[in-house]
Design brief:
Layout: H1 4-12, H2 17-28, E1 36-39, E2 41-42, E3 45-47, H3 51-66, E4 70-75, H4 85-92, H5 100-110, H6 117-126, H7 131-136, H8 140-149, H9 153-157, E5 164-168, E6 171-174, H10 175-187, E7 193-200, H11 205-223, E8 226-233, E9 240-244, E10 259-260, H12 268-273, E11 278-282, H13 293-322, H14 328-342, H15 355-366, E12 370-377, E13 385-391, E14 394-400, H16 410-417, E15 421-422, E16 426-430, E17 451-457, E18 460-466, E19 479-484
Parallel strand pairs: 2-3, 3-19, 4-7, 4-11, 7-8, 12-19
Antiparallel strand pairs: 1-13, 5-6, 9-10, 9-18, 11-16, 12-15, 12-16, 13-14, 17-18
Helix pairs in contact: 3-13, 4-8, 13-14, 13-15, 14-15
Length: 506
């Protein structure tokens, strides 16, 4: 399947030979699905924090914040075009997907509430078109043409991060600006520095630079902070092999292999290169207006406080476990902590393990990064949720997507459907070990937890491997703690009409 000429192309792309061969094998013989044991629930894998606990943990995090140990990591390369999909379909005369007719209707009815309404209206006026009349007369297709191929082309073609999300008295704010403002409230160290990192597409780097340059002179004096904002792009070496439905590598007319962007799981490499300490991770479209920022910052700081508290406790046990002189008492205490605080469940036959086998297992199972993930009560949003998963080494807590569950198993389908909570991608991660060295994050990836996806290329169907999701398989072997958050803390904008929801009103 893979020739010597192919390998030259593979190597020039920055991909190792063994990796592309592994991907080819996965595409022809997919890995097994994750075996779900049960959904997490309050008191069984999900913690609930009362007001005193929230305050105590937030205060604990404040001390760490002042030391400059915190930063935010925001995947921000997603295109806004996905939010305009219904209008693209309408413009092209394509059949609307389920729910898209209601999406267009909602956008037309609430269009004046979009943060880009005034600028869009002005741009249309220059072209001799009157937006208010178009809206009043319900000229949906004409509006779709203007949105996707006219005055607002820059909106639909831009990254979602640069789309105006919220309208304030002083004007519209992009999702990017909202993240800076939230970071200023949450990350500021004793010197006023706020560290944020955005992963972006290389093609949009100039636009991000220009937007940031325009914002800093306005925001820094007003807030009394100094933003340290950095960007990175997904490396080409994380691209994956595309294969035809005939299980042969897809080739161009020139005989070259086709590679595909490896999905958000590839961003683990970007996270690793930061050598960061305490990191907040949130999707760029989950940006809230000012009225919701204080409560969300408090919840996030409480999650950070929990990471720090767990690290302090765990890192007190690890030197004792690593010691070859560790006795049964030390090992039992470490296991008790792992079981009670981190959801660590030993494998069957534990009582028959020798002392050395127990010590080795505890070293492997305990010396891992910690993440605290906020979860919200399910409200019909598509995506993953918190589950107990059966593994060779016992049970573990995982964020699981529907695509990771066996579709042919009625029993597994029922377990997935019984989930009461949803993963909003709001988490705090501790990326340094008990020796204060950065974890090598690749060690904790479940490389079999890939997503196999069908894509279209030049009118033909191809199969691709997506790397284990950043908060799924890429963090599969981390310590995971789930904490319930209020539903209003989660305000995604996947469709354009989502910006009209109550959670996005100023």
């Amino acid at each position: 399947m893979i020739t010597e000429r192919d390998l030259e192309q593979v190597h020039s792309h920055g991909i190792k030979t063994e990796e592309v061969l592994r991907q080819a094998a996965l595409l022809t013989d997919p890995p097994p699905f994750l075996p779900l044991d049960r959904p997490c629930a309050l008191g069984d894998g999900i913690l609930s924090l009362d007001a005193p606990a929230l305050e105590r943990l937030a205060v604990r995090a404040e001390r760490t914040r002042l030391l400059g140990r915190m930063m935010r990591f925001i995947p921000a390369s997603g295109r806004a075009s996905r939010m305009f999909h219904a209008f693209h379909s309408l413009c092209e005369g394509s059949e609307l997907e389920p729910g898209e007719e209601a999406e267009v209707k909602a956008c037309l009815e609430g269009f004046k509430n979009f943060a880009f309404y005034k600028s869009f209206k002005a741009d249309l006026h220059k072209s001799g078109l009157e937006l208010d009349r178009m809206l009043k007369e319900g000229r949906a297709k004409e509006l779709a043409q203007a949105l996707t191929g006219g005055a607002a082309t820059q909106l639909s073609d831009s990254p979602k991060a640069l789309l105006p999300f919220h309208e304030y008295a002083e004007g519209g704010r992009t999702a990017f600006e909202e993240h800076l403002l939230e970071g200023a409230a949450q990350l500021r160290d004793k010197n006023g520095a706020c560290r944020l990192h955005f992963t972006i597409s290389a093609e949009h780097k100039t636009r991000f630079d220009q937007h940031l340059a325009a914002l800093l002179p306005k925001l820094e004096p007003k807030l009394g902070v100094k933003f340290a904002v950095s960007f990175s792009v997904q490396g080409k070496g994380t691209d994956t092999l595309a294969m035809g439905l005939d299980n042969e590598p897809y080739r161009s007319p020139e005989g070259k292999l086709l590679f595909w962007a490896g999905g958000h799981g590839a961003l683990l490499h970007n996270l690793q290169r930061l050598h960061a300490d305490i990191v907040f991770i949130r999707n760029v479209d989950n940006a809230v207006p000012d009225r919701l920022k204080p409560a969300r910052c408090r919840h996030d700081l409480a999650m950070a406080g929990m990471v720090i508290e767990l690290q302090d406790e765990l890192y007190a046990y690890l030197p004792r476990v690593y010691s070859k002189a560790a006795d049964e008492t030390a090992l039992d205490e470490a296991l008790r902590f792992g079981r009670e605080r981190l959801g660590v469940v030993p494998p069957g036959g534990w009582d028959a393990f020798t002392r050395e086998d127990r010590r080795s297992w505890l070293i492997d199972r305990l010396d891992r990064p910690i993440r605290v993930c906020g979860v919200v009560p399910s409200a019909g949003e598509p995506g993953g949720g918190p589950f107990w998963v059966r593994e060779k080494e016992g049970l573990s807590l995982q964020i699981v997507e529907r695509a990771q569950v066996d579709p042919s198993s009625e029993e597994q389908g029922k377990v997935f459907a019984a989930s009461t909570h949803f993963n909003p991608v709001d988490m705090v991660c501790g990326l340094r070990d008990y020796l204060d060295e950065p974890f090598r994050l690749e060690r904790f990836v479940d490389k079999d937890a890939v997503f196999l996806a069908e894509k279209s290329w030049e009118g033909k169907k191809v199969k691709v491997v997506e790397h284990p999701g950043l908060w799924n398989g890429s963090m599969s072997r981390w310590h995971t703690v789930f904490v319930e958050m209020p539903l209003e803390m989660f305000q995604p904008a996947k469709r354009l009409s989502d910006l009209l929801r109550q959670g996005h009103t100023v």
